Amino acid sequence: GPVNPGEEKPRILLMGLRRSGKSSIQKVVFHKVSPNETLFLESTNKIVKDDISNSSFVQFQIWDIPGQIDFFDAAFDSEYIFGGCGALIFVIDAQDDYMEALSRLQMAVTRAHKINESIKFEVFIHKVDGLSDDNKIETQRDILQRATDELNDAGMDNIHLSFHLTSIYDHSIFEAFSKVVQKLIPQLAVLENLLDIVISNSKIEKAFLFDVVSKIYIATDSSPVDMQCYELCCDMIDVVIDMSCIYGVRDIFLSRARDDGAFDNESASFIKLNSGTVLFLREVNKHLALVCILREDGCENRGIIQYNFKCFRAAIQEVFVARNKQANKSTGHPQ
Ligand code: GDP
């Protein structure tokens, strides 16, 4: 079949007890729902296959695991679900008693690891907006201790768990998702390298490669990430998309699918802040956009930035086409 850049996507499974916050995370990260609106969500009680495959670089499913779920029940095709999954995110409600959640985590991890040894396990210690700073650290320490002790006791000390403090009321949930997704991108080093080249050749201070729909950054240059910069870039995406929605065609994602909308391959925007900072956004492909931060005097020659961007985009296309060829080869699909 035809090779579409970015077609083979990182697959993520979101698990956790009922009411831990899974649907809220999904709505806020992938569907632009505001955190307050999640108060009225109906609880999930079955596997939800969120079909974001046409709009996002990331693909994921939600799986509730309240008490009665039996991993060995034939109705749950765990071979299929864990087999094709890159990362398993387990959500723990930090505002609630988490003992039940910890024992469910243990079961899920053990089962998943048996089926697929390469799964990355990511624990979201969630709803930490309700905790004081001291309490956050203490909760994280306690959960980490108990979870790893339990694995060690079961003789599974070869399994590694990563922990993230998250909340849908700030950018921590996006930041955590970014870290999870980045681990699943085999070409991360190549992407980081390309971003380093772009920024040094264009007097750019910081560059993020974003999955536009989710505002997850799938790569950034090698300089450290400042949360404020990241938030600024997220806001930039919102502004550009809102502008495209209002002054472009009505449905931006529909228009992208048809390739004739306002937000397309040529979409670009410069925003100058009165602090002397300039934000630059440029569409890379169907899912991805480059967002950069630079100083005002660094963008005197926009032509150079645009030229360097074109080179960057061509390189990105190469990276993902190569990845798909590889994937097609290993699964035996015709190219
Ligand atoms: P699910 O059953 O795991 O899908 O859980 P829901 O997404 O339905 O969330 C249950 C409740 O937790 C809802 O009332 C949400 O508003 C709330 N919630 C989700 N995430 C957060 C968070 O980060 N902080 C706070 N304070 N509440 C949250």
Give helix and strand order, one letter per element, not per position.
EHEEHEHEHEHHEEHHEEEH
Assembly state of the chains shown: single chain
Q: Count the beta strands.
A: 11
Overall pLDDT confidence = 82
Computed Rg: 21 Å
- Major sheet strand order: 2-3-1-4-5-6
Main sheet: strands, sense, barrel:
6 strands, mixed
**How many DSSP helices?**
9
Low-confidence stretches: 1-7, 255-261, 331-335
Q: Give the helix proportion (percent range).
A: 40-55%
Strand residue percentage: 15-25%
**How many angstroms separate the termini?**
6 Å
Give the CA-based shape: globular
Q: What ligand molecules are bound, each kind once?
A: guanosine-5'-diphosphate
How would you sum up this structure, described in words?
Helices cover 41% and strands 20% of the residues. The N and C termini lie close together (6 Å). A six-stranded mixed sheet has the order 2-3-1-4-5-6, with helices on both faces. The radius of gyration is 21 Å and the shape is globular. The protein has 335 residues and is an alpha/beta fold. A hairpin with an 8-residue loop joins strand 2 (48-50) and strand 3. It binds guanosine-5'-diphosphate (GDP). Residues 16, 18-24, 38-39, 41, 43-44, 126-127, 129-130, 167-169 line the site of guanosine-5'-diphosphate. It comes from Biomphalaria glabrata (Bloodfluke planorb).
